[in-house]
Design brief:
This protein is α+β, with helices and mostly antiparallel strands. It folds into three domains: about 50 residues, no CATH class; about 90 residues, no CATH class; about 210 residues, no CATH class. The protein has seven helices and 16 strands. A five-stranded mixed sheet has the order 12-11-10-13-14. A three-stranded antiparallel sheet has the order 2-1-3, with no helix packed on it. It is extended. Keywords: DNA-binding. Pfam families: Cas12f1-like_TNB. InterPro entries: Cas12f1-like_TNB (IPR010095).
Length: about 375
């Protein structure tokens, strides 16, 4: 007697207009539930097993931020003012059906102002909530997300070049301002603490990975860069009247130097690049400021006055002295003015292995056309 193998696994199907069975959803009233044959289940398992060899499931251990949609987490205003410290409640689904929990969010003055401004501009609350885990403290934070309408592009205002030189400050502008000098001093102090602690770990044969003090100092460095970059860009964006900024001209997003260790430079470069990129993108949407990028090659060597380019124009990290026209100024401010002037360039191909060569050729051509002599040195 043949053995009959039954399966409890079924899938919904419906009859199409052509009289053919096609897959459908569970909500279709005219659906037909059909068993999946054991041989097909076996084949499906083999396909999944083979696929898993090349494309494995993501390791959720390394995921620190989850985005929850409004089906899972829905923010609501408190119905009463019983707890003035709570400004929002987030109704969150649980594994028990019909048993959600409400999580209270502490009042945040900065967020409330941003929320009021967003509503006034026709925006509101976005349909998602962010749940973030801090790797160092293992604490969880829940953040609301605003749906902010894009601002109209500015039609009036100045064009300002920004240089990320880090000689005496984080950022320098083409109008002669240095931003973030105090933050740069803090970063140097943190670098010394981090280097001392890492030497202490090395002497005892301990690894940096997983060390709480090492992670705490790294976190402070990232937070310092993030907060200072945000403060500087916001300050430029909020300037109105004759000093209003219409366009920011930047070079390749880079943070290096400042008299810090090589490892510290790598850390700030990665952190600063990511933070500044996000901030510049957001400022275009929220304030209507245009952002333009220009080639970064030779911005620290080119003279903002005559265009003469030579590494000997930099007698020190913070000082610029042109060997052709004699112009002297702070090196980062000179670089910021060079960046601003390159906005009007016919841009060379500054990508790939020939980027420096292409930029240098254009600099030589511009200098010779202007002064009727070749550039030397």
């Amino acid at each position: 007697m043949a053995r009959v193998v039954e399966t409890a696994f079924q899938l919904p199907w419906k009859v199409s207009e052509d009289g053919v069975l096609v897959p459908c959803g569970m909500k279709v009233k005219s659906k037909v539930m059909l068993d999946v044959q054991p041989r097909l289940l076996k084949l499906a398992r083999r396909l999944v097993k083979q696929a898993m060899k090349t494309d494995k499931f993501p390791d959720m251990v390394h995921v620190d931020t989850l985005v929850l949609d409004s089906i899972i987490a829905k923010p609501e205003r408190p119905e009463t003012a019983d707890s003035p410290r709570i400004s929002w409640w987030v109704k969150t689904s649980t594994l028990t059906k019909g048993k959600p929990v409400e999580i209270g969010l502490l009042a945040n003055t900065y967020f409330e102002r941003a929320y009021e401004d967003t509503v006034a501009r026709g925006g509101g609350m976005c349909g998602v909530v962010q749940l973030h885990r801090d790797k160092g403290t293992q604490n969880f934070t829940m953040n609301l997300v605003l749906d902010i309408p894009d601002a109209a592009p500015r039609t009036e205002g100045r064009t300002v070049g920004l240089d990320f030189g880090m000689a005496d400050a984080l950022l320098a502008s083409s109008d002669g301002q240095l931003f973030g000098a105090k933050a740069l001093r803090q970063l140097r102090a943190l670098d010394e603490k981090l280097a001392d602690h890492d030497r202490w770990l090395a002497q005892r044969g301990l690894k940096r990975k997983g060390d709480r003090e090492h992670e705490r100092l790294n976190r402070r460095i990232r937070d310092t860069v993030k907060n200072e970059v945000g403060r500087i860009i916001n300050r430029l964006a909020l300037t109105h009247g004759p000093e209003q900024v219409r366009t920011l001209v930047v070079e390749r997003l880079d943070f290096r130097g400042g008299g810090m260790s090589r490892r510290m430079n790598r850390l700030i470069t990665r952190t600063g690049r990511a933070v500044l990129k996000r901030k510049l993108e957001s400022i275009q949407e929220s304030a209507g400021i245009q952002v333009e990028q220009v080639p970064a090659q030779y911005t620290s060597q080119e003279c903002s006055g005559c265009g003469y380019t030579s590494k000997r124009n930099r007698p020190s990290r913070a000082r610029y002295a042109c060997r052709f026209c004699g112009k002297t100024m702070h090196a980062d401010i000179n670089a910021a003015r060079v960046i601003q002037s390159r906005r009007s360039w016919q841009q060379p191909d500054n990508m790939g292995p020939k980027a420096r060569t292409n930029t240098r050729q254009l600099l030589d051509q511009r200098f010779q056309h202007r002064w009727n002599r070749p550039m030397e040195g």
